[in-house]
Amino acid sequence: MVQADIQIDHTAAVPIYMQIAVQIKQLIATGKMLTGSRLPTVRELARTLEINPGTVVRAYLALEQDRIIVSRRGSGTVVKARSNDPAVSRLRQRRLSTMVSDQILEVLSLGYSPEELEAAFSTHLSRWREERRKEETVTHPRAKVGRGVDSLVIVASHDLVLSLLVSKLREVNPQAAIQLTYAGSLGGLIALQEERIDLAGIHLLDEETGEYNNPYLRHLLPGRKMAVVNLSYRVQGLMVAKNNPKHINGFNDLKRDDVTFVNRQKGSGTRVLLDFELRKAGIDPSEVNGYDRETDTHFAVANSVLRGEADVGLGIKAAADASELDFLSIVKERYDLVIPVEKYRVGLIAILLDIATSADFKSVVANVGGYDTSQTGSVTFLR
């Protein structure tokens, strides 16, 4: 129900009608409202939000002027249909091109570099893709990708640089069948163990040695020769609302009754890191309000904090920055790509690694923030 998804803040500087319009755009962008979806009537939404109907009318008019919705007498207000008519398609593409061009011109005229622009755009596009993916997988489970020369199957722990890398690979090879599934670091290693995928992305801290990844590989993939390629080092920390209203300063604050936490799923490297930090601090998971509430990506954690559903979560700096959250740095961790040696630098994997080590790609990653690519592409072979 659209009404339940729209919330307004009477204390915000943004006008209420604009808050409504932006949130409706978000519902459409994330796939929660589809072409033809009916919006609440002006009276219904005004009654739900306890505001003047004129404010809702103003929001709907702004959306209609942007050609996002259309109101027809007798049939209500609906998300505008996308016509298949070639003339309409050309008009839409021309409008898109003009909007993008105008925004690029504005950004560059303010002194930002093309690399900064690309990094910011890629980060926010990845965030919105993540939101859409969550909605689409509920109603439209993704078909399996066939295993062939022009296919690549990846199971990994969620990472923004990996998302950007796969997007670049798709640009270079638009006909290739590439499937990237975020199922946690252990999920990736298990998929490798069962020979269901071509490579995994992992960041698993071994508490006994303080080493990342290799101890898990030796334990879970004994006797199999693997190429371990560093993708990046990244900063993990606590994500909190802007200006840190709950004054959260570390893991000890997670025990407070007034603090709600949002966790990552079992098997993720971030969950392993959290459990390690809790043990170091002498905190039992049962003392953390929200420990059992699981999400599967860093952006999902950030969105929970941004929406006020949680006060704090553990995740990467890039996700916090993209969501305009405050960030308390905890650790710099190693994120590796794990590839069976017989597939190392073969086919699409070779192209993927070439992109990852290119100066252009590293420049984009540097502008994302929270990443270190000084070791990107370095490889060790484990048996």
Protein topology:
Elements: H1 2-5, H2 16-29, H3 42-49, H4 53-65, E1 69-72, E2 76-79, H5 86-109, H6 114-139, E3 151-156, H7 160-172, E4 177-182, H8 185-193, E5 199-202, H9 214-220, E6 226-240, E7 261-264, H10 269-280, E8 294-295, H11 298-306, E9 312-316, H12 317-322, E10 326-340, H13 348-356, H14 359-368, E11 371-372, E12 379-382
Parallel strand pairs: 3-4, 3-5, 7-8, 7-9
Antiparallel strand pairs: 1-2, 5-10, 6-9, 6-10, 6-11, 6-12
Helix pairs in contact: 2-4, 3-4, 6-14, 7-13
Features:
3 domains; D-Maltodextrin-Binding Protein, domain 2; alpha/beta; Arc Repressor Mutant, subunit A; 14 helices; 383 residues; two-stranded antiparallel ribbon; globular
Protein architecture, described:
This protein has 383 residues and is of the alpha/beta class. The chain folds into three domains: 2-79, Orthogonal Bundle (Arc Repressor Mutant, subunit A); 86-139; 201-382, Periplasmic binding protein-like II (D-Maltodextrin-Binding Protein, domain 2, 3-Layer(aba) Sandwich). The chain is built from 14 helices and twelve strands. The chain has helices at residues 2-5, 16-29, 42-49, 53-65, 86-109, 114-139, 160-172, 185-193, 214-220, 269-280, 298-306, 317-322, 348-356, 359-368, and strands spanning 69-72, 76-79, 151-156, 177-182, 199-202, 226-240, 261-264, 294-295, 312-316, 326-340, 371-372, 379-382. Strands 3, 4, 5, 6, 7, 8, 9, 10, 11 and 12 form a ten-stranded mixed β-sheet that branches. A two-stranded antiparallel ribbon has the order 1-2. Strand 1 (69-72) and strand 2 form a beta hairpin. Mean pLDDT is 87; it is low at 138-146.
